Structures are given as structure tokens and as C-alpha cells.
Amino acid sequence: MNDDFSRRGFLRAAALAAAPTLLPADPSVAAQELPDFPSDVALYRSAYRNWVGEITADGLWACAPDGPDQVVDVVNWAWRQGRRVRARGSSHGWSPLTITPGTASDAPVLLVDTASRLTGLSLESPTSVRAGTGVTLEALLTYLEEHGLGVTAAPAPGNLTLGGALAIDAHGSAVPARGEQRLPGHTYGSLSNLVLSLTAVVWDETAGAYVLRTYDRDEADCAALLTHLGRALVTEVVLRAGANSDLRCVSRTDIPAGELFAAPGAEGRTLASFLDRAGRVEAIWFAFTEFPWLKVWSVSPTRPLTSREVRTPYNYPFSDSVPTPVADLAGRMVSDGAWYLAPVLGNAQYDVAALGLVATLSADIWGPSKNTLLYLRPTTLRIATNGYAVLTGRDQVQRVVAEFTAFYRERLSAYAERGQFPVNGSVEIRVTGLDDPADAGVAGARTPLLSALAPRGDRPEWDTAVWLNILTLPGTPHAEAFLSQIERFLLRTFDGEYAMTRVEWSKGWAYTRDAPWSDGEVLGAVVPGAFGAKAWGEASAALDRLDPHGVFGNAFLDRLFR
Questions:
Q1: Pick the catalytic residue: 428, 480, 504, 538?
Q2: What is the pLDDT of residue 19?
Q3: What is the pLDDT of residue 31?
Q4: pLDDT tens-digit profile of 46-105?
Q5: What are phi and psi of 385, to 5 degrees?
Q6: Residue 6: per-residue pLDDT
């Protein structure tokens, strides 16, 4: 086999997907192409690669400001030069919120790298932290832990930058267990719901320039900036935090999908039953297998007798480093077009998880929250994913999961009978609360307007979101057609009667049969409608007013907010 498509080649290609090449700027070329660029700001040429390498751009101009003041200088330069500014953190995303497909190297775009220098961390008070938006979630959670603080839930990858996470309302998986009371400084919603104040680069009409301005959580414009989708540039935030908790995480691979995802009212080990007992669950169901990998977190102030104490995060090495059997199969599928191996790959992934949990003694782990919440490294298998949040009442979660998984299973089987295998990864299911602004502990705190977890005022009984993702290798034939059917099912089934579908901003959505982020009806009507005309209009108007020249944007965002 050609080494380019061997296991080594496959893994190397995956690693390069998010490792942009940085080339020092030629001073003479920079002076010609970027006249009068601020001389004290580091400038270079850079490639852009999103998480799976499906959106790429080569040779873009990029810079790394030393701090917020230099960010302002760069933004004002870009405005005067007719360029658009795109903030780049870890590029751990799928959707075209940063760079759009087909962006040419000579496009009037400037990348502003936040992760190298906008990384300050300091305690603002005993229960809040001031953080630069380039800091990673792992660094943030480590700092909080050192001061006895933590969060209820967080995304699994620790390499996400805080700014990127807030821009798309990043979340974990947590609702209150039966009888559990929310701790002060914590939220069951998104990380955006923890923001107390933020500092952004915005247009000042009096100054006739972009300036730094700080917005407190009770200000109207803050509501639009809390989840801005890349239509703004936030340099620093103050986040609320609460007392840290020790968490136990128990993994199981012995519960059949038919039992875990059973119709509501069924007896047995259902997802809802684990929610009642622990409140924190995640199900990973590999394609063409019957037994999901179920994680259940529970608050445990002392170490349970059977748990292994963990002092660092990333405790599933079999998942972080792609095992040989999985890499070989994925490599064959991508290079040889052997997509019929999807059932074999699904079962190989299940076997690796089931055996790996035993071999690494990680089926029952316990420690400070960070060490069980963060479990995904950049070395894991790079895979494409769609994403939706289904808002509903807590008592309807099992119904949502049962209806979704039944349709998914039926469609996957129907495709397979035709010799088509559109999914070769997994289904991932998480459950969170919504963004209750009262959790911030600020009088008059505003709800993040564009967070998928923003409550609907007309449906107060909806207090929960079920997050649904389907993962498959990039380039898998028939994937877009399959995911389009899934999306249409979600929109049709969870249409506002007892549940409602919103898109997960960072993932794939608005599918046609050929591509994501392309369905005009979803982009123009469904997405805004899911937030309500008033909320969508307020957010759009605020973002336009704070950036009237459209410096922070791209062609996709222009279409979304038109």
C-alpha cells in the first residue's frame, strides 16, 4: 500500500489537519501587500485547517497581537484597508464560521491568532476569574482547580480556546440529578452563561474608529456578544465559577441500545434512569453495533472504593491515540473507497473501547472535575459531525432519544440494504440544562441571545436540551443525503409541540443532498425561527451596530444574518 494512504499516512494527514504552517513574513512583500500594517505586531503567512481538514486555505496573512490594544490597532488597520478579520484559536470546529470553503490565499482576510498571547489568567474575586480569550479550556480549568474552583460541565477537548468556546455556546453534559441543588457559581447550561462581563472590539461613532469596550452581563449588547458566532472579536472575559467538585465517572458497554434508548415508560436501564440518579451522562453508539459506550458522572466528595483516582485529564488513551486496527480500516476506507467496511470499523471501535476501559483501568475513575470532564486529545480520530440541540422538558428526554435513535437505526439499515454505508463513526448523545441567566448571580443578567440553550419564553416547561451528533469520516459517500434526511426528521418531529430543534453552531447542519450549510430554507427561515423573530432580530441588529463595516464576518455569516 502507498505510504500516503497507509496507517502512518492516514494519521499524519489527520495531525496536519489542525497544525497550520507558519511562515515568517517577507518584509518587502508584507510592505507591498499590507501597507502601513502595525510594525509592532508579529506578522506571518499561515495555512488554515479546520478540525477535519474539510475547510482549508493556504498562505493567508496572519498575526499574533501581544494584547487587546494591539488587537484594536490591527482591526482599525484592517477596516481602513478593506480587509476582514477572523479570530483563530485552535480551529477545532467544523462549520464555516471562521473561514469559508474556497477562500483563496490572496483573499482580503487577516487571521488574528489568539492562542499564542491573549492567554492571561487571574482571579477577579474569590468566585470569578479574568481570562484572555486565547487561553485553552484545560489551562482555565487547571487554574480554577488550583484555587478550589470548577465548573459543572465542559466540552471534552481541552485544547479549545475560551474565545472559540464562548462564540459557539460550548457545553458539556449535565442536568441536576433528582434531589440535586445547583451550587452557587455553577450552571447546567453553556459556558457562555457563566460570563459576568466581556471586553470586545467595537465601533465607536464618536471616535470614528474601533475601540475596546467592556460590557457587563446586564447590558443589552452583552446578550448578543455572549454567543456571537464570529461576528465579533472578544479579547477578555470575566467568568463566574463555583466550588470545585470531585466527580466519579463510570463507563459501561454492556447495556443494549434497545434498552438504553427504549421508548418512555420502559423498565430497565434507560438513559432517563441514569439522568435521574446522576444527572451527567454521555452515550457513544458506534455505527452498526448494539452496545453503546455509556459514561455516567456523579458528584462524589470521597473516592468510592472501586474507583481509581486520576490526577490528570485524558484517561482514555485508547481513544486519544488511534489504535492500529481502527486506523488501518479508516485508511482503507478513505484511500481505497472500501466504505462497505463501515460495520467492521464500528465493531472495531466498540471492541477497542470495551477492551481499553478494562486494560487501562479507566471504567471507574474519580478525581477533581477537570480530570474526568476533559478526555479528548487532538490526536484522536478526525471525523466529521452534524449537530443539533433538541429543547424539551426533562420528562420528555427519553421520548426524544427513543424517537431519534429509532429513525436513525431504520435509515442506517435501509441504506445498508442498498449497499450504502453513510455512517462509519458513532452517534453521540448528551443532555444539558438551558441557559438560566440567574445562574450568573448578577441582577438583571441577560440571556445569551444566540445560544442554542437560550430558553423560550413561550415554553417555560422546556428546561432541558438533548444534544445529538452523528459522526462519519470526511468524504463518506451518501453522508450528506443521509444527514439531510436526519435533519428533516428532527425538524419535522421536534417542531414545537413537545420539543424543538436548534442547530449546534460549530457542527454540520443545513444539509442538502450534496453539502452542509447550504439549505436555503434552513439558513433563511428555520434557524432564525428557532430563536424567535425578536431575539434573532435583536442579536443581528446589535452585531451590525457594533461592527457596521462588517470587519468581523465572512460570506457565510453575511448570508446567515442577511
A1: 428
A2: 53
A3: 81
A4: 999 999 999 999 999 999 999 999 999 999 999 999 999 999 999 999 999 999 999 999
A5: -150, 145
A6: 46
Band (pLDDT 50/70/90 cuts) for residue 320 is confident
430 is catalytic: yes
- d(CA 525, CA 533) in angstroms, rounded, equals 10
- State how far the Cα of 329 lies from the Cα of 225, in Å rounded to an integer: 43
- Neighbouring CB atoms inside 10 A of 59's CB total 15
| Buried b or exposed e, range 173-191, using 16+ CB within 10 angstroms | bbbbbeeeeeeebbbbbbb
Q: Which residues of 104-139 are buried (b: 16+ CB within 10 A; e: fewer)?
A: eeebebbbbbbbebbbebeeeeebbbbbbbbbbbbb
The model's confidence at residue 444, banded by pLDDT at 50, 70 and 90, is: very high
SS3 labels along 435-482: CCHHHHCCCCCCCCCCCCCCCCCCCCCCCEEEEEEEEECCCCCCHHHH
- Is 282 known to be catalytic? yes
CA distance 523 to 105: 27
Contacts of 273 (CB under 8 A, 6+ apart): none
461 tagged catalytic: no
pTM (predicted TM-score): 0.95
In this prediction, residue 21 carries a pLDDT of 61
Residue from 511, 460, 474 nearest 490 by CA? 511
Reduce the DSSP state of residue 310 to 3 states and report it: coil
Strands 364-368 and 388-392: unpaired
The amino acid present at 307, given as its one-letter code, is S
Which amino acid is it at 485?
Q
pLDDT score of 408 more than 90: yes
Beta-bridged to residue 476, according to DSSP, are none
Chain centroid to Cα 169, Å, comes to 8
Contact by Cβ (8 Å): 127, 158: no
Q: What type of residue sits at position 213? A: R
In the block, residue with C-alpha cell 445560544: 451
How large is the C-alpha radius of gyration of the chain? 23
Q: Which of 92, 171, 217, 399 is catalytic?
A: 92
Continuous segment of H or E residues that includes residue 49? strand 42-49
Cell numbers representing residue 185 in the block: 457559581
- pLDDT exceeds cutoff 50 at 18: no
Give the separation between CA 218 and CA 561, rounded to whole angstroms. Answer: 24
CA distance 518 to 142: 39
**Average pLDDT score over residue span 280-304:** 98
Q: Is the dihedral of CA 479, 484, 486, 487 positive or negative?
A: positive
pLDDT above 80 (res 16): no
Q: Which 8-state DSSP code applies to residue 3?
A: G
- CA distances, 311 to each of 154, 238, 246, 375 (Å): 17, 27, 11, 13
The answer to whether the beta carbons of residues 167 and 426 sit under 8 Å apart is: no
Q: 101 phi and psi, to 5 degrees?
A: -55, 140
Grouping H, G, I as helix, E, B as strand and the rest as coil, residue 382 is coil
Does the annotation count 428 as an active-site position? yes
Catalytic residue among 282, 480, 487, 504: 282
Cell numbers for 431: 443532555
Return the amino acid letter for 424.
N
- Identify the residue with better confidence: 23 or 496: 496
